[in-house]
Amino acid sequence: MSITDTSPDFTTRPSSSQEWIERARQVAAVLATDAVQRDRAGRTPHAEVQLLKDAGLVTLLGPEEHGGAGETWSTAYRVTREVARGDGSIGQLLGYHYLWAWAARLVATPEQIEEVERLYTAGNLFFGGAVNPRDNDLVITDEGEELVFRGRKSFSTGSKVSDLTVLEGVLKGTDQHVFAIVPSTQDGIVFGDDWDNLGQRLTESGSVEIRDVRVPWSAAAGYVDKQFRPLTYNTLNLPTIQLVFANFYLGIAQGALAAATAYTRERTRPWPYGGDNKDTASEEFYVLDTYGDLQSKLWAAEALVDRAVEEIEPLLHGDREAVTPEQRGQVAVRIAAAKQRIIDTGLEIATRVFEVTGARATANSVGLDIYWRNLRTHSLHDPVAYKRVEVGRYALLGELPEPTWYT
Q1: Could you tell me the pTM of the whole model?
Q2: What is the pLDDT of residues 145-167, one digit of tens each?
Q3: Residues 365 and 306 grouped into a single domain
Q4: Where is the Acyl-CoA dehydrogenase/oxidase N-terminal domain (predicted)?
């Protein structure tokens, strides 16, 4: 039986932000039932992405006039977090989709924004992306009215489950980066099927070969007459995706704590040789102490992530030309703090839950390892030490982070 066979009835459309978050919880509950088994099977998550589409989550940020929910980023972040509680891989896929669906607003012209948002919203289309700035071997050549993309990217999250792919490369002979959105299914895009990592196994994040993919200059995001017109707003793409990371890390950590507490209540046995023997593990002093410590740390991390969401939301939904470098820097440093905190807290939770679930909880059939594997894998995306340094420079020197491909 497939995921879509067991999914709830999604015929009634949510009408508020809270209802969309509840819809995400329903999706997470479906995903959680066999997340470990699907992780081990490692099959391409077509059914999982179809579940997201059927639930209406794919077009959450899409304009209402094209059939989208017209929701804001605060809802999108919470939805990403909730889905990640049930399955970290699918939470990542959805969070990345939201960023790439918003990419047109971040860098494109008004005409391009309208075209992209109509296309993906009306078609209920899912985004993947061949966007890895550390790879410089995807080269774009200018052939008059067209741009031709050729080369390779080491990572292409969403690959075979995507309908649309965001390409990024450098225009030959320049330092100009160009983004373009193209159909994922075409002869010129060949996915490597080589994603075989410790965690986040269902994100389809393997390599991709780009073979003579042609796009008209009119599809080069933000370019007019072959010239890019920069705004500070363009540079919000990095803080926005870094906060996507923080939210699905938070969801993974919440899922780990929820799974562990359920196991402890139902299956962990009390220790019979401590001198103050208890009838259940839930009465054990060290168990209560540990869960109290972990829950408190998780609430603190959640509060910091939520604060960062509150700060970036008005910038993302406000006047694109009004965003200042200082506003951008202030929100970037808050996100850097939130990201480092949830990584540290999440990894601690995903490790220490074994101390309060017991030796039998290490059985492969239990699958508590999935949370640590997922969080450990993606938290290496970029060194967290640099996030601490960004916050340190702000605290000590009053310096705001400068925009880079990872800041």
Answers
A1: 0.97
A2: 999 999 999 999 999 999 999 99
A3: yes
A4: 22-115
